[in-house]
Amino acid sequence: MRLIHLFIITLAFSILLITGCSNKTKGVDNEFPPSMTGLITINGMEYQMEEGNYQWERKKGFGTEVVQTDHASPYQMADSIKSISVKPNQKVDIKIEDNPNIKIFLWTEKGRGKEIKPAANQITVPSNKGKYIYEVLAEWTNGSVVRPSIGRII
């Protein structure tokens, strides 16, 4: 009987030790700052969104850790991003890991333009031909990431 109790205590301690020391879980709570995947889908094709500036914070002990970066504007970043050719009035699905609140802005050479209201994380590109630069601002409880994307309507 004593051997069974010793075995159960050893097993419980081993499980506690393994789960308490494991750092393999991905996500906002374990990786700082977390790396979040951002994709857009057009006609079943997925495209990786570029990462712009971001800000993250988390409580650590009695303090707060903050990481903040600065990046070129989406309009400036568009020079180095390969554009995606889409048809007029094409639907674009936006998928960002952990389903943050998103805001979408259309950019011009003058800067951030009007906000585009997504419907179920989906937007419709304009019907006019041209080059369109979108900024997706993803906001979680502990931080935010700006992700620009560029499209060319053909």
Using brief descriptors, characterize the structure shown.
154 residues; alpha+beta; Immunoglobulin-like; seven-stranded mixed beta sheet; four-stranded antiparallel beta sheet; 2 helices; 16% helix; 45% strand; globular; disordered N terminus
In short:
With 154 residues, the protein is an alpha+beta fold.
Structure write-up:
- This protein has 154 residues and is of the alpha+beta class.
- The protein has a single domain (36-153), classed as Immunoglobulin-like, CATH 2.60.40.
- It has helices spanning 2-21, 74-77, and strands at 38-42, 45-48, 54-60, 63-68, 84-86, 91-96, 101-108, 111-116, 122-124, 130-139, 143-153.
- The strands form 2 sheets. Strands 3, 4, 5, 7, 8, 10 and 11 form a 7-stranded mixed beta sheet that branches.
- Residues 1-28 have low confidence and may be disordered.
In N-to-C order, the SSE pattern is HEEEEHEEEEEEE
Query: Portion of residues in helices?
Result: 10-25%
Please state the CA-atom Rg, rounded to the nearest Å. Answer: 22 Å
The CA-CA distance between the termini, in Å, is 78 Å
The major pleated sheet works out as: 7 strands, mixed
Mean pLDDT: 76
CATH structural class: Mainly Beta
Low-confidence runs of at least 5 consecutive residues: 1-28
Strand elements, count:
11
The CATH topology comes to: Immunoglobulin-like
How many domains, as an integer? 1
CATH architectural label: Sandwich
